[in-house]
Write a structure and sequence with these properties.
The chain is an alpha/beta fold. It folds into 2 domains: 119 residues, Response regulator (Rossmann fold, 3-Layer(aba) Sandwich), CATH 3.40.50.2300; 92 residues, Winged helix-like DNA-binding domain superfamily/Winged helix DNA-binding domain (Arc Repressor Mutant, subunit A), CATH 1.10.10.10. Helices cover 42% and strands 21% of the residues. It is built from 8 helices and 12 strands. A hairpin with a 2-residue loop joins β8 and β9. The longest helix has 16 residues. The radius of gyration is 18 Å and the shape is globular. The model has no long low-confidence stretch (mean pLDDT 88).
Length: 223
């Protein structure tokens, strides 16, 4: 079956453009024009991914939708917004978006980013998929789940993959470019400060239990 993608966009011309490109890429597009209808369609359609505008009519804007979805789902979310300030991008990533694309945008680039996220998150774990243990932290590749002192720690897809990459390369000083290539993929188009946002989120969620140090002029190292 072709996977569904939920488009949350109130501009009909942009929604139609996205619909056409998604159909060409063998997705089934589902369109919502408000935050409220987006949440209803998410529950009924179970999309494989969400493309989310921030400026929506009604009581719920895109940030509200993203925050609500992240309370119970790890579905890939790509924010598509005219808000191009750095703080907007950082906040969007911090509340759980997997990617942030600013308008005007290239539909081909957006589809490429979406495919890259889905390839990584939907890949079947290899036989004997590992469970990594770092002190009180457990990283379970098969279940895509993490715990801290036995209690579940909800992570976005990017946060989960980044933590796994750091754990499997523990003790190595990794540049932002190495982290982007290893986690986001070499086709990643975005700003390398995206890494900083996700590192900040991991530090917030795991605290001192996750010994990530900043290597000035290089990147990050997990002790």
């Amino acid at each position: 079956m072709q996977p569904a993608v939920l488009i949350v966009e109130d501009d009909p011309s942009i929604a139609e453009l996205l619909r056409a490109y998604l159909e060409r890429a063998h997705f089934v597009p589902v369109v919502a024009v408000t935050g409220e209808s987006a949440l209803r369609l998410f529950d009924t359609e179970a999309p494989a991914a969400v493309i989310l505008d921030l400026n929506l009519p009604g009581a719920l804007d895109g940030l509200d939708v993203c925050h609500t979805l992240r309370k119970h789902s790890t579905v890939p979310i790509v924010i598509l917004s005219a808000r191009d300030q750095e703080l907007d991008r950082i906040f969007g990533l911090e509340i759980g978006a997997d990617d942030y694309v600013t308008k005007p945008f290239s539909p081909r680039e957006l589809i490429a980013r979406l495919n890259a996220i889905l390839r990584r998150t939907q890949a079947t774990p290899p036989a004997g998929a590992v469970i990594e243990i770092l002190g009180p932290i457990t990283w379970d590749q098969q279940r895509r789940a993490t715990t801290l002192a036995g209690k579940p720690v909800p992570l976005t897809n990017r946060e989960f993959d980044l933590l796994g990459f750091l754990i499997t390369h523990r003790g190595v000083a990794l540049s932002r470019r190495q982290l982007l290539d290893g986690v986001w993929g070499p086709e990643w188009y975005g700003d390398d400060r995206t890494v900083d946002v996700h590192i900040r989120q991991l530090r917030r969620k795991f605290g001192d239990a996750l010994p990530i140090s900043t290597v000035w002029g290089v990147g990050y190292r997990l002790a």
